[in-house]
Amino acid sequence: MTASTAATLPTRPGRLAGRRVLITGASRGIGQAIALRYAEEGASLFLAATTLAGLADTQAQAEARGARVLVQAVDVTDRSAVQGLVDAAVAGLGGIDVLVNNAGVYHAASLLDTAPEDFDRVMQVNLYGAFHVLQLSLRQMRDQGAGKVVNIASTAGKGGSMNQSAYNASKHALVGLTRCAAQELGPMGICINAICPGFVETDMLQSFSAHAAITGLSFEQILANGKARVPLRRFLQPQEIAQLAVYLGSAESDGMTGQSILLDGGMLMV
After folding, report:
1. Is the pLDDT of residue 6 over 90?
2. Average of pLDDT values for 99-116?
3. Is 38 among the catalytic positions?
4. Number of neighbouring beta carbons within 10 Å of residue 247
5. pTM of structure
6. Phi, psi angle pair for 266, to nearest 5°
7. Catalytic residue, candidates 38, 106, 128, 167
């Protein structure tokens, strides 16, 4: 079902029954896992990613779970395109009850070697892109008098890391944006929280190969060192992040807002 296809959205059983959900970065990894868990919990979905082809698998799997699914390609750094995305989601679903703000990119480089254009690209996607989707969705939630936002941040938004200054700066900013938005929108019945995952077994983890080139260590040693930082001695699965996202999108978390929740196997205990 494409974005131009309006559909009747019947309520199905589940913790997210009847909820109309916009998810960015839904083609793979954490975004895909959240979309599929939301589908299982009764939500109707509007999924976005950079290409329609990339969304095909997520759409097919979500529809197989009984969800109504609309999809649209979008570049979140393009504000006019994001406005079109939000407008299409409202038209197709009848409104947005939950936003999962997940689109993001990763870049590894030493601070001294980080090119300004690489720093800017990370900030444009991870911060400005998140801001565009957040602000334009919140205006719709304000008008309907309720809503939930789940921003996908990172442990990189809670502390320092070697050789990823652009990424950490973007995720620190997203955590700050989450807190400020929660302060302003709380009186309007809107809850805004962030999830801060640690190491998660997605294709983004493969981007850590750049650290091997920087440090001279093998990629296998980079992963082993990362795992050694985690008390549970394992990387998380995307489905584990999705479980928390279900809670934050459901009525169960109605008393929670402005939080940036670590889900990292105990790597950061702050």
Report:
1. no
2. 97
3. no
4. 16
5. 0.94
6. 90, 10
7. 167
